[in-house]
Design goal:
Mean pLDDT: 85
Largest sheet: 6 strands, mixed
Number of domains: 1
Radius of gyration: 21 Å
Low-confidence stretches: 1-18
Number of helices: 1
Distance between the termini: 52 Å
Protein backbone atom coordinates (compact mmCIF):
# COMPACT_ATOMS: atom_id res chain seq x y z
CA UNK A 1 0.00 0.00 0.00
CA UNK A 2 1.37 3.39 -0.99
CA UNK A 3 2.20 5.72 1.89
CA UNK A 4 2.49 9.49 1.79
CA UNK A 5 4.73 11.26 4.32
CA UNK A 6 4.00 14.82 5.43
CA UNK A 7 6.52 16.84 7.41
CA UNK A 8 5.05 19.22 9.95
CA UNK A 9 5.52 21.15 13.22
CA UNK A 10 8.79 22.97 12.62
CA UNK A 11 10.39 20.55 10.14
CA UNK A 12 11.98 21.73 6.90
CA UNK A 13 10.38 20.27 3.78
CA UNK A 14 13.16 18.48 1.97
CA UNK A 15 12.45 16.49 -1.18
CA UNK A 16 15.08 13.79 -0.98
CA UNK A 17 15.94 12.25 -4.32
CA UNK A 18 18.96 10.03 -4.75
CA UNK A 19 22.02 10.65 -2.59
CA UNK A 20 21.76 13.86 -0.56
CA UNK A 21 24.65 15.15 1.52
CA UNK A 22 24.01 15.49 5.23
CA UNK A 23 24.51 18.73 7.12
CA UNK A 24 27.69 17.31 8.63
CA UNK A 25 29.10 16.57 5.17
CA UNK A 26 28.08 19.98 3.82
CA UNK A 27 29.69 21.66 6.83
CA UNK A 28 32.97 19.78 6.30
CA UNK A 29 33.03 20.69 2.59
CA UNK A 30 32.28 24.38 3.13
CA UNK A 31 34.71 24.71 6.05
CA UNK A 32 37.54 23.29 3.94
CA UNK A 33 36.58 25.56 1.04
CA UNK A 34 36.68 28.62 3.29
CA UNK A 35 40.02 27.57 4.80
CA UNK A 36 41.47 27.23 1.28
CA UNK A 37 39.94 30.43 -0.10
CA UNK A 38 42.20 33.48 -0.47
CA UNK A 39 41.02 36.80 0.93
CA UNK A 40 39.83 38.88 -2.00
CA UNK A 41 41.13 42.22 -0.86
CA UNK A 42 42.26 44.37 2.04
CA UNK A 43 39.26 46.67 1.72
CA UNK A 44 35.74 46.11 0.42
CA UNK A 45 36.21 49.17 -1.77
CA UNK A 46 38.06 46.93 -4.26
CA UNK A 47 35.74 43.91 -3.92
CA UNK A 48 33.35 42.83 -6.66
CA UNK A 49 29.90 44.33 -6.22
CA UNK A 50 26.62 44.28 -8.07
CA UNK A 51 23.42 46.33 -8.04
CA UNK A 52 20.77 45.41 -5.51
CA UNK A 53 18.51 42.91 -7.36
CA UNK A 54 15.22 44.38 -8.54
CA UNK A 55 13.53 40.95 -8.62
CA UNK A 56 13.58 38.16 -5.98
CA UNK A 57 16.69 36.00 -6.44
CA UNK A 58 18.41 33.03 -4.84
CA UNK A 59 22.12 33.51 -4.28
CA UNK A 60 24.62 30.78 -3.40
CA UNK A 61 27.29 31.98 -0.97
CA UNK A 62 30.07 29.38 -1.18
CA UNK A 63 33.53 28.81 -2.70
CA UNK A 64 32.38 30.60 -5.86
CA UNK A 65 31.90 33.82 -3.85
CA UNK A 66 34.58 36.17 -2.54
CA UNK A 67 36.10 35.80 0.91
CA UNK A 68 37.01 38.69 3.21
CA UNK A 69 38.31 39.19 6.74
CA UNK A 70 35.42 40.73 8.67
CA UNK A 71 36.95 41.85 11.96
CA UNK A 72 39.26 38.86 12.31
CA UNK A 73 36.87 36.24 10.90
CA UNK A 74 37.21 35.19 7.26
CA UNK A 75 33.86 34.61 5.57
CA UNK A 76 32.31 34.14 2.14
CA UNK A 77 30.19 37.16 1.22
CA UNK A 78 28.16 39.00 -1.38
CA UNK A 79 28.28 42.78 -1.79
CA UNK A 80 25.49 44.91 -3.27
CA UNK A 81 25.37 48.58 -4.18
CA UNK A 82 22.25 50.31 -2.92
CA UNK A 83 20.34 52.67 -5.20
CA UNK A 84 20.34 56.39 -4.47
CA UNK A 85 17.73 56.89 -1.77
CA UNK A 86 14.32 58.10 -3.01
CA UNK A 87 11.81 56.25 -0.86
CA UNK A 88 11.61 53.86 2.07
CA UNK A 89 12.09 50.20 1.14
CA UNK A 90 13.12 46.92 2.73
CA UNK A 91 15.43 44.01 1.94
CA UNK A 92 14.17 40.59 3.07
CA UNK A 93 16.90 37.96 3.45
CA UNK A 94 16.08 34.29 3.98
CA UNK A 95 18.83 31.75 4.60
CA UNK A 96 17.72 28.34 3.30
CA UNK A 97 18.64 25.13 5.10
CA UNK A 98 20.21 22.26 3.12
CA UNK A 99 20.98 18.62 3.82
CA UNK A 100 18.64 15.93 5.10
CA UNK A 101 15.67 16.00 7.44
CA UNK A 102 17.75 14.61 10.31
CA UNK A 103 20.92 16.64 9.66
CA UNK A 104 20.89 20.11 8.09
CA UNK A 105 23.40 22.89 7.42
CA UNK A 106 22.58 26.58 7.34
CA UNK A 107 24.44 29.83 6.68
CA UNK A 108 23.85 32.12 9.69
CA UNK A 109 23.95 35.50 7.94
CA UNK A 110 25.37 38.72 9.28
CA UNK A 111 24.71 42.02 7.53
CA UNK A 112 26.75 45.23 7.39
CA UNK A 113 25.77 48.48 5.70
CA UNK A 114 28.42 50.99 4.61
CA UNK A 115 28.58 54.59 3.46
CA UNK A 116 30.28 55.64 0.22
CA UNK A 117 33.71 55.42 1.92
CA UNK A 118 33.00 51.91 3.25
CA UNK A 119 32.66 52.99 6.83
CA UNK A 120 30.25 50.72 8.73
CA UNK A 121 26.98 52.53 9.44
CA UNK A 122 24.86 49.62 10.69
CA UNK A 123 25.52 46.00 11.58
CA UNK A 124 23.18 43.07 12.31
CA UNK A 125 24.41 39.82 13.85
CA UNK A 126 22.75 36.43 14.28
CA UNK A 127 20.99 37.34 17.55
CA UNK A 128 18.10 39.14 15.87
CA UNK A 129 17.31 36.64 13.10
CA UNK A 130 13.78 35.20 12.88
CA UNK A 131 13.14 31.47 12.62
CA UNK A 132 11.10 30.18 9.71
CA UNK A 133 11.10 26.45 10.33
CA UNK A 134 14.74 25.49 9.77
CA UNK A 135 15.31 28.65 7.71
CA UNK A 136 16.33 32.04 9.08
CA UNK A 137 15.01 35.44 8.03
CA UNK A 138 15.93 39.09 8.45
CA UNK A 139 14.34 42.28 7.13
CA UNK A 140 16.57 45.34 6.70
CA UNK A 141 14.66 48.63 6.38
CA UNK A 142 16.14 51.52 4.43
CA UNK A 143 14.52 54.70 5.76
CA UNK A 144 15.29 58.41 5.20
CA UNK A 145 17.66 58.28 8.18
CA UNK A 146 19.69 55.66 6.26
CA UNK A 147 20.03 57.70 3.06
CA UNK A 148 23.84 57.83 3.43
CA UNK A 149 24.16 54.02 3.17
CA UNK A 150 25.53 52.94 -0.19
CA UNK A 151 26.52 49.28 0.16
CA UNK A 152 25.31 46.14 1.91
CA UNK A 153 27.47 43.08 2.60
CA UNK A 154 25.95 39.73 3.59
CA UNK A 155 28.34 37.15 5.03
CA UNK A 156 28.49 34.08 7.26
CA UNK A 157 28.85 34.08 11.03
CA UNK A 158 31.92 32.58 12.69
CA UNK A 159 29.96 29.93 14.62
CA UNK A 160 30.83 26.30 15.24
CA UNK A 161 27.87 25.30 17.40
CA UNK A 162 25.03 23.04 16.37
CA UNK A 163 21.54 22.68 17.82
CA UNK A 164 18.78 20.11 17.89
CA UNK A 165 15.20 20.76 16.85
CA UNK A 166 12.16 18.54 17.15
CA UNK A 167 9.97 17.69 14.17
CA UNK A 168 6.87 15.60 13.57
CA UNK A 169 6.26 13.29 10.61
CA UNK A 170 2.72 12.33 9.66
CA UNK A 171 2.25 9.20 7.53
CA UNK A 172 -0.90 8.99 5.41
CA UNK A 173 -1.85 5.51 4.17
CA UNK A 174 -4.72 5.35 1.61
CA UNK A 175 -7.15 2.47 2.31
CA UNK A 176 -9.25 1.35 -0.66
CA UNK A 177 -12.52 -0.48 -0.06
CA UNK A 178 -14.29 -0.82 -3.41
CA UNK A 179 -15.13 2.66 -4.69
CA UNK A 180 -14.33 4.25 -1.32
CA UNK A 181 -10.86 5.57 -0.47
CA UNK A 182 -10.08 6.45 3.14
CA UNK A 183 -6.87 7.77 4.65
CA UNK A 184 -5.32 6.30 7.80
CA UNK A 185 -3.05 8.69 9.67
CA UNK A 186 -0.14 7.83 11.93
CA UNK A 187 2.75 9.90 13.19
CA UNK A 188 6.19 9.89 14.75
CA UNK A 189 8.46 12.47 16.36
CA UNK A 190 12.13 12.97 15.63
CA UNK A 191 15.04 15.34 16.13
CA UNK A 192 17.01 17.27 13.54
CA UNK A 193 20.57 18.56 14.01
CA UNK A 194 21.02 22.08 12.62
CA UNK A 195 24.65 23.07 11.92
CA UNK A 196 26.05 26.56 11.35
CA UNK A 197 27.87 26.56 8.00
CA UNK A 198 30.13 29.14 6.30
CA UNK A 199 28.27 28.50 3.02
CA UNK A 200 24.64 28.34 2.02
CA UNK A 201 21.85 29.70 -0.13
CA UNK A 202 20.06 33.01 0.36
CA UNK A 203 16.73 34.20 -0.97
CA UNK A 204 16.82 37.99 -1.41
CA UNK A 205 13.73 40.09 -2.05
CA UNK A 206 13.55 43.88 -2.22
CA UNK A 207 10.17 45.37 -1.33
CA UNK A 208 8.90 48.93 -1.77
CA UNK A 209 11.19 50.18 -4.53
CA UNK A 210 9.53 51.54 -7.66
CA UNK A 211 10.37 49.33 -10.65
Amino acid sequence: MRQVHILAAGAAAFLLAGCVATGKELLAQSTKALDDAPVCCTTLATARRQPLPAQPVEVVVDHTAQAFDFGGSKAFFVLYELPAFRETYSIVLTSLAAGTLDDTALLIPRVALYDRDFRVVRHFDEKTLRNRGNNLERTVFINPANASERYIAIYGSDLSASMERAYSMVTVTPLVAGPVVMNMYSGSDGKSTLRSSPAGKLHIEVRGLAR
